[in-house]
Amino acid sequence: MHLGPLQVLKRETWDRICQRLSELDRQVTDQGQHLTQLDQRFNQTCLERDELKAEVERLQQCVQPYELVTPPKGKPTREAMFGVMRGWTTQFEVDGKFVAGPIGMCSDLRMLWHMDIIGGAVNKRALELGPLEGAHTKTMIEHGAREVVSIEGFPACWLRCLIVKEAYQLHQAQFLFGNFCDYVADYQGPKFDFVLAAGVLYHQENPARLILDLARLTDQVLVWSQVADETHPNGAEATVEAGGRTYRGRINDYLGARRVEKGYCGGLHSVAFWMYPEEMRRAFIDAGFRFIVERRWGATPSGPSVLFVASKYPCGQTATK
Q: 0.85 cut: is pTM over it?
C-alpha cells in the first residue's frame, strides 16, 4: 500500500522514538548496573570501615588498660603492680590481700591434679601454651619447675604475665609473645619434660595438627579442654586432618568477638574446631601418647570438658633416653 508524505513522516518519527526509547532503556540498564556496583562498593567500604574501627578499639584496649593508670602515692608495692592494668581475670594474693581479678586460678584444682599425676615438676622443663595471666606458670614453679617457657598471643595478657613474673620474682619463667602453634611447628631444641595445654586446644583451627606437632618436642601433655557434643558448639559438624588421618568435631565461630569484645582471650582466628572427646583422645594416641590418665570433669557453661594427662610412657615412669 502506498503511503502518503504525512504517513511516511509519522512512521519515521515513530521509528526514531522507538530507537530513542531503546537507547534510553539501555542507558537505564547500564546505569542501574553501575548503581548496583556503586552500592556494592559502598557496602564494602562501610564494612571495611567498621572492621578498621573495631580493630582500633581492640588495639586501644591493649593500650588504655596500662596507659591511663596513675601511680598510687607512697612507696612502690607489689599490690600497686597489679593496678597498672585493668581487666584482670585471675585473682592473686599479695601480702595477705586478694588483688586483680575474680577467679582463683592460682589454686586451680585441675592444675593441682595434673601436678599430682606427673609426680610434680621438680627440676623439670615445661612448655606452657597460652598462660593467660601466669597463674599456672606460678603453680608449676612453686612445684619445682626449673624452667617454664610460656607463649601468649594476646598483648594485654602477655603484659599481665610480665607483671606477675616481677611481682613474684618468677625467674624460672620466660614469657614469649607470639603464636604458640608456630613455635611448636618450628621448634628444634631439646625436648620439654611436659607441655601444659590448658584451655587452648579448643581455640585452634586444627587442634589435631597441634597435637601431632607436640609429639616431636615432649613425651607428656597436660590437658584441660572444652569438647564438642551434639549441641556444643552450635556450628556445623566438620573434620580436620593431621598425619593423614581425619578427626571429627564441630566448628565454633567467634562471630567477630576478637575484634569487638572487650577482654576477649579466645583463639587467634575467626573460627575454631572443637573435637569430640573420643576424637581428641584418638588424636593423642595416634601421635604416640598411648597412655592417658583421665579424671571426670564437669561441664562448663560453654559445654562439656575433659581433663587428662597424655603420655608416651606410663605416668610415674620416666622416658627412655
A: no
Q: How many Cβ atoms are within 10 Å of 113's Cβ, its own excluded?
A: 18
DSSP letters of 76-103?
--HHHHHTSS----BEEEETTEEEE-SB
Which pLDDT tens digit goes with each residue over 247-285? 999 999 977 545 444 555 676 788 999 999 999 999 999
Report the C-alpha gap between 139 and 131 in whole angstroms: 11
What's the N-to-C CA distance of the chain in angstroms?
110
CB 186 within 8 A of CB 117: no
What distance in Å separates the CA atoms of residue 54 and residue 313, rounded to the nearest whole number? 47
- Give Cα separations from 141 to 9, 30, 92, 144, 175 (angstroms): 102, 70, 15, 5, 13
What's the maximum distance between 2 C-alpha atoms anywhere in the chain? 114
Contact 310, 237 (CB under 8 A): no
Which triple of cell numbers denotes residue 318? 620416666
Distance (Å, rounded) from C-alpha 102 to C-alpha 79? Answer: 15
